[in-house]
Amino acid sequence: MCGIIGCVGRGDETLDTLVHGLSKLEYRGYDSAGVALSSDHVEICKNSGKIDDLREALSDRTLSGSVGIGHTRWSTHGPPTDANAHPHQDCHGDVAVVHNGIIENYQSLRDELVAAGHTFTSDTDTEVVPHLIEDALEAGSDPEDAVREAISRLEGSYAVAAVVAGCDAVFAARNDSPLVLGLAEDATFLASDVPAFRDFTDQVVYLADGEFARLDADGWTVTDSDGSVVEKDVDTVEWDPEETGKSGYEHYMLKEIHEQPRALRQCLRGRVDELSGTVDIGDLGDLSPTGVQFVACGTSYHAALHGAQLFREAGIPSQAFLASEYATATPPIGDALVVGVTQSGETADTLSALRAARRRGARTLAVTNVVGSTAARECDHALYIRAGPEIGVAATKTFASQLAALNLLALGTSSTGDARQVISALRDLPGHVQEILDESAAQEIAEIYQDADAYFFIGRGYHEPVALEGALKMKEITYKHAEGFAAGELKHGPLALVTENTPVFAIVTGDDERARKTVGNVKEVEARDAPVVAITDGQSDVSRYADHVLELPETHPRAAAVLANIHLQLVSYHTAALLGRNIDKPRNLAKSVTVE
Ligand code: F6R
């Protein structure tokens, strides 16, 4: 989704700092970009396309000013044109504004402003903001009050940043859309996400809904909607700037796949005690849920399916819901704990579902990667998955860490007979992931099947969500048809699609009834000449019916699910690489989906 950067105190390097910040926000997905610099006047440069197009446009211009704002836009109101790119300005060009989110009352504001003689040049909802500021300035307000007055008229979700000619400050406000300040010795930054300024500082202040920030030569202040100063905590970001670079990997996705052993270690660190067979998740251990409802989207939904199985296995009624469905048809909650699984903590559908649950009186918990994210702040509790920043649009390491964190949650809040075995499997997980990364035959499989018509993924129990995730990863980065099924469903329709040019990936571990039934499904596929890739620990006889095997170590089925997924991530990655896809920024997708 859209990205915001702002900075004060970078002198002659202001413009370069803004463009650098925007390039660090590219992972959020965007279709246009722009910057504004302010001094005694405001100058802007913006266009549809990529940051490189903006750089080219800037090469013909001299923009001056020592405070500025920048934006990457993901279209919501109006197509991705130069005119619709941010920043937007007032009638005189004295104000520039960038905005993330959706202003729900923009049409009535626009009608009012047009009737009062304002001229609009874009289709965006954002453009009402500079015109509102213009009105307030003309009515005699100083720049800060003018921005405040404009913000007070807005309904909906927004992170807004503004500059005003003749005032060396950046103003910002948020409601339902993230904004964070970065504090360096002689400069202050503002962004929708930390990577935008992480090269300059690790000191951050997260703004809360309804707060207003002023950044100027004297530093920064945060005030509430009444103008009273809010004392904010300054946090230290724990990851270093190198973590947002590619570290020699061709793509962020590949780097992040390889970061999984470390991410898992971080997730587990200090939380499991193998000797006593216990898990320590702090106060969360006292939650004692009698029922659990998970809400999530996309990859996180697949993690939620895993989480729901964990609780059911512990005898606690539990179900995973797609957040977009839950928000509009909240099922009876009773005294269930409602858990939002969201890597970013900013996914609009998931936030809506969590808010719906809160309105119904539920206790809520965010399982998220982003400290200070909206989900983390709005929920009663947060469990951090500690995966580190994920830049590739396709979720990889955060999925593995979500599964691990959900196992900790289930172990820490309920009791299962095999806690010791699970804890020992979790302890072995980072090492097992490393073995798969070192030895997986995924690239060969990708080479053999890169031209397949479609890809199918099947699994039972803990392997069903992995089958769904394998298919999602394949379709989002290769743009090829892929579907995942509970293995038993194959014969209820999808088998009609199976041909000799549709490889079927079957995840089979152990040799229990589930495994044997999945082997039966594999035989049905084989009888229809489809190539079979078995992802297996070799305990069942699935390999006899498979054309290829991706090997797994013997471990607990919960951990095996994480491991099987590593092979599938690699198959999708290598297939996409062979097909020359834009792996880190697949078409039509955004990293953080902040609209419903
Ligand atoms: C797929 C992917 C998306 C996200 C979904 C939820 O690779 O990244 O399906 O999983 O948009 O995002 P979060 O977890 O941030 O709520």
UniProtKB/TrEMBL annotation:
The keyword Transferase applies. Residues 281-419, 445-586 form the SIS domain. InterPro entries: GATase_2_dom (IPR017932), GFAT (IPR005855), GFAT_N (IPR047084), GlmS/AgaS_SIS (IPR035466), GlmS/FrlB_SIS (IPR035490), Ntn_hydrolases_N (IPR029055), SIS_dom (IPR001347), SIS_dom_sf (IPR046348). The active site is at 2 (nucleophile), 591 (for fru-6p isomerization activity). PANTHER family: GLUCOSAMINE--FRUCTOSE-6-PHOSPHATE AMINOTRANSFERASE, ISOMERIZING (PTHR10937), GLUTAMINE--FRUCTOSE-6-PHOSPHATE TRANSAMINASE (ISOMERIZING) (PTHR10937:SF0). NCBIfam families: glmS, PRK00331.1. Catalyzes the first step in hexosamine metabolism, converting fructose-6P into glucosamine-6P using glutamine as a nitrogen source. This is Glutamine--fructose-6-phosphate aminotransferase [isomerizing]. It comes from Haloarcula salina. The lineage of its organism: Archaea, Methanobacteriati, Methanobacteriota, Stenosarchaea group, Halobacteria.
